Amino acid sequence: MDPNPMDQNLMDPNPDFIxxxxxxxxxxxxxxxxxxxxxxEENNPDDTFEAKLNIMVNLLSGYEGAxxxxxxxxxxxxxxxxxxxxxxxxxxNPDFMLQFCQDQMPDFNLNVAVQRLITxxxxxxxxxxxxxxxxxKDALPNADPTYLKKEAERLALxxxxxxxxxxxxAIEENDYPTMKEYLQHKKEQEELAFYKQFDIDKFLxxxxxxxxWFNDPNRSxxxxxxxxxxxxxxxxxxxxxxxxxxxxxYIDLLFDWxxxxxxxxxxRLDRMSKSMRRPRPQEKNVDSSNxxxxxxxxxxxxxxxxxxxxxxxDEVYKMQREEAIKYNLLQECQCxxxxxxxxxxxxxxLKGCVFCKECVRRGAENIIGNAGMRFPCFATCxxxxxxxxxxxxxxxxxxxxxxxxxxxxxxxxxNIDGVEMCPFCDWIVVVPDDKKVIKCCNMDCMTxxxxxxxxxxxxxxxxxxxxxxxxxxxxxxxENKMTEALTRTCxxxxxxxxxxxxxxxxxxVCGARQCYLCGAAVQDYNHFGEGRxxxxxxxxxxxxxxxxxSAANAKQELGxxxxxxxxxxxxxxxxx
Length: 576
Description:
The chain has a two-stranded antiparallel sheet. The chain has helices at 5-11, 15-24, 30-43, 49-60, 64-67, 74-88, 94-104, 110-120, 129-139, 145-155, 160-173, 179-196, 200-206, 210-214, 229-242, 248-257, 262-270, 291-326, 357-369, 387-393, 396-414, 469-486, 539-558, and strands spanning 346-348, 354-356, 419-421, 428-430, 437-439, 448-450, 488-489, 496-497, 505-507, 513-515. The protein is 51% helix and 5% strand. By secondary structure, the chain is mainly alpha-helical.
């Protein structure tokens, strides 16, 4: 008869318990150790190893005088308690936990200690959010860094497991804000910044003739009927703060009466007398990213400065023109033959041919539109225009795109090892040999693509494990052909059907009769027999033959292409 499992445990004490007890009590007799193990096992069979060991230590503390057990190795016991608690509270500050264990000695009780830590709390490891931020950026290089920074500040208060779980979830779901979105937003904010913090040179570069533009009665207003409520509030707050001596109700009446046309509203408000003795306190404005609205408000707030600057520029131009006439410095454009160019209006090819800004700009844009990279002189010489000249005449965005294309062509000709072109924007990237992903640095693209198949990165899947649009089209084409082979069509009403059982003489719901095998119309059973279509067949075998043949024909029609997911593979199992 087999012994009881509990009796077996008592007969063979756990050697781990004996080893642990002898580490604490080096001279502990074996019989006493076995007795302590038996007591702990009998009274607390479901406790953890550490809890049972703690019970044995507490029991043995009463045996020291009677059994001549050497003094307990308190330092080793302290280390064991410390390791157990650190496993249970991995985010605890190690120095705090060590001091806590020392304070509980010599009467350390694990259950009491754990309950005290849970109830009273404990000092946690002070994690630097910047270190977590760097960890997140390394693991998610294509994520918005501002988003990762906020997450790092949150995760710094949690455990390392929470950081790992966050990264695993982010990689699997791929639903975080991207670096591309961040850079686009940053670019938009930079474009809006000099309207909020007014820069007159950049403003006049963007809008060369603002007075005529904003006072044009045919101009579209920046606040149409579909404008966001935040933009409407932004405009109202601007008016309240700019005209703090005029009551809000008058401003609101004008705002609605003039259909939100800020230029006309401000023109009327400028001619109104003050309706309040003391100015209204300034209100804090909301933020806005409405470019047209910010441009108009920047003009209205700074129009006196703008008009002075435009007047100053006109005076400087007149002075330059008078000096050019006086000293016979006027030049003629060799393209449009405008002969009244002052020196400041002249642009030259590398051999000194003179052109006006408009001619150089139009000619350069025409070459760029035709994917040209070389900009020959528009006169009879064999020279060309420098990039510096093109930068002065072309809009900033156009020149940046041109410079990017030139850099791409130069990188191609350089034949540098590891040079790869982004499949989505032609940006040149140098990729180490051991890397399989092309990380595009073009701010307008920022796509991560596979170096092998040239599709969007599909890590951790291999190229042959991912199905793209062309793969779907090929697969569905074959599937449709296989379905057509499996079904039959009524010769009278066109209804499709499949035979589940019975003979091959089929009767449609419309009353038409036909042969299931050849599709011919029949009236009776004379169509079937020896040398003709059989009346009874193995339907699975017939259907399998038709489906396999149809799939083969479909593949042949597609041509010599890769069928990544072949729907006819193992089709025999379906009909078995």
